[in-house]
Specification:
Elements: H1 5-9, H2 21-28, H3 36-48, H4 52-72, E1 78-82, H5 92-99, E2 104-109, H6 112-121, E3 129-134, H7 140-145, H8 147-152, E4 160-164, H9 173-185, E5 192-198, H10 205-216, H11 227-232, E6 238-239, E7 245-246, E8 267-273
Parallel strand pairs: 1-2, 1-4, 2-3, 4-5
Antiparallel strand pairs: 5-8, 6-8, 7-8
Helix pairs in contact: 2-3, 4-5
Amino acid sequence: MMLSDLGAMMLEKLDTGTVHPARRYNYWLGGKDNFAVDRESGDLLAKSYPAARIAARANRAFLQRAVRYLAVEAGIRQFLDIGTGLPSADNTHEVAQRIAPDARIVYADNDPMVMAHARALLTSTPEGLTRYIEEDLREPERILAHADLVEALDLDRPVALMLVAVVHFLSDQATARNVVQTLMGALPSGSYLAMSCATKDFLTPELAANWDETLRTGKSDVHPRDRAAFGEFFAGLDLVEPGIVAVGEWRPDPDAEEKPLPVNASIFGAVARKP
């Protein structure tokens, strides 16, 4: 069993026979809070896309750079991070509160293991605030109406909505667009959307065909978007430079040890401001 003590305590309450993206992502990042079914799924997808672990790390690094930009350059002090996954190094609140100790962060996810870890590990600075709510991205109205969110965030002031590697689990584009529009529609002018989503645009024909096959056979739950479809999520928003690019190319850190090529981190990333 590859579970931390906290994860083991939650075992009786968890569905250990169903793959969960947050636990699979944890496995790819080298974590131990996952089950055999998550590792099997992760290994299966890695056979079709051998760079899966590189992509997971690149996506995580994009999240951290985006939060730094939002806290430093955009002056954002409120964050709503949906589909946060299992806590890892340099979570949204840690990056934001190092820069602005008074930053307020609400996380949302729909896995009991994520909730257990979040409540135990996602602490806050004394000046700031961190909350975790168990809700599903597919029900944005419930997220927005949740008592802990209403208490933690002032929706009359700018908020950064973080949708990092989560919308691609919604297969229908119209549904996904509506979810993002509902969430952004509740946020005031000056708010931001930071988002990443898997894509086949950077893949070789062979890798793209492999991806299609994993979706066709139900081995994958990641539904990629091309650039045009990803761009639809930013309709009416002002893209921050460099616009829509591979996550490894969004304001890259020149001192980073790992500099993945788009084919190895085939994920679009972008940040945009609500005018």
